[in-house]
Amino acid sequence: MISMQISTVTENYIHDLIASGRREDGRDTNDYRQISISHGTIPNAEGSAEVTIGSTKVLVGVKLGIGSPMPDKPNEGNIITSAELLPIASESFEMGPPSPEAIELARVTDRGIRASGIIDTKALFLEEEKVWDLFIDAYILNYDGNMFDACTLAAVAALSTARMPKYEDGKVIREGNLGRLKTNNMITSCTFAKIGESIVLDPDGNEELFMASRLTISNDKDAVRAMQKGLSGSFSPKDIENLIDITFSKSTELRKHIENIKGE
Asked: Whole-structure pTM over 0.70, yes or no?
């Protein structure tokens, strides 16, 4: 009973605060928390990056291995994206098979990468019945809201700084003078939460607890490439148009974080 009362008090507090145009951490409605990116975190991966947004921390590793093409795409390699919500990240995460939340996180990250054409899957073809499998594995190390934008940033940063192994005489060579994995574009995402009648960018953990709906918009410089709505609430067409405008404005800032590490 006491925990339910505390939850109700917290919910009312969050709703009232956001309705007045304020947030617990002092941010404006359309502000991100502090963002940082580091790369090369996993020595044995082709590429890796760690992203923090506020207190949310995500690690993504990229690995390439030899695989078989899909029957309907015999001349293309494969992109396999996964996400794991580690129990160390939150008391609500448990060990076991991927949860619906982990599956959704992986799919949203994967969809933006595919739709933007960051990786040319035809360039991953090796020879008949042999292609590169490109694995993108995301691990949530600490959860405080907005895993989607953190995962997309970390995945793109890892891809942008990854080394491309060589394939010679049927063997994979991961040492020596390796060039970078070729990337053709850059995708970022912006996630919004609707709380009451207000909409905020980059919801933290408390805000996500009480949001009625969530919208993640993935875009490159030219176009929206993917969208994912979560939960049972709704956004009006006018809301979505406005959020797309905000996304294009904010994505310029997000891309700069990746561009900074690409030059290192």
From this structure: yes
